[in-house]
C-alpha cells in the first residue's frame, strides 16, 4: 500500500513529516493496531520496523550509484531481536538501542531475507566512504536516508519509492 493512495482516500496528502496516525485521521493515543482499515485501500496499519526488503532493494539500486565503496559497507542490526547469538560481535549504542556492528557489500543488507520470511534487516547502513546513511528503527514506520542533494533528488524521483526531503530539525517518526 502506498501512503499516497491511503492519503488520497482520506483527502490528505502525505508529506515529509507525516505520521501514519495523521494520515488516517486518528489521535496517536488512539492508534493501537485495531483500526478497521478502509476496504480496497488498506487493511493493516503501516508496519513498524526496519526497512522492508522490497524497499531496501529499490534503495540499493539508487544508493550504489552514489558511493565508491558499495562493496565495503557497515550495518547496525538491533541487538534486541534475540533470534541470533550476537555475543561475539562488536556493538555500538544509538539512542535507546544497542546495535550489532556488521560489515559486507551493500547488497548484503537484504541477505537475511534469504534465510526466512521473518529475518530482520539492519536498522542502519552506510558505505565505507560515508557518502550516505540509511536509518530506520524497530518502532518507526519510515526509513530515512541522509546524503548528497543529488542522491536525495534521485530518491525523490525514483519510481516505487515514496521519498520526501527532510531537514535536520524536522520531527520524524
From TrEMBL:
Superkingdom of source: Bacteria
Protein name per its UniProtKB record: Uncharacterized protein
Organism: Streptomyces microflavus (Streptomyces lipmanii)
Amino acid at each position: 500500500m502506498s501512503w499516497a493512495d491511503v492519503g488520497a482516500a482520506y483527502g490528505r496528502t502525505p508529506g515529509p513529516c507525516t505520521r501514519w496516525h495523521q494520515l488516517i485521521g486518528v489521535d496517536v493515543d488512539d492508534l493501537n493496531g485495531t483500526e478497521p482499515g478502509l476496504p480496497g485501500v488498506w487493511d493493516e496499519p503501516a508496519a513498524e520496523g526496519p526497512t522492508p526488503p522490497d524497499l531496501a532493494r529499490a534503495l540499493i539500486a539508487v544508493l550504489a550509484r552514489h558511493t565508491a565503496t558499495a562493496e565495503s559497507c557497515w550495518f547496525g542490526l538491533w541487538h534486541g531481536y534475540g533470534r541470533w547469538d550476537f555475543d561475539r560481535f562488536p556493538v555500538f549504542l544509538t539512542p535507546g538501542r544497542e546495535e550489532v556492528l556488521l560489515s559486507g557489500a551493500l547488497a548484503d543488507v537484504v541477505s537475511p531475507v534469504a534465510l526466512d520470511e521473518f529475518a530482520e534487516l539492519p536498522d542502519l547502513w552506510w558505505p565505507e566512504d560515508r557518502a550516505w546513511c540509511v536509518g530506520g528503527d524497530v518502532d518507526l514506520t519510515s526509513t530515512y536516508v541522509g546524503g548528497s542533494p543529488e542522491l536525495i533528488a534521485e530518491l525523490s524521483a525514483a519510481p516505487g519509492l515514496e521519498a520526501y526531503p527532510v531537514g535536520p530539525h524536522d520531527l520524524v517518526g
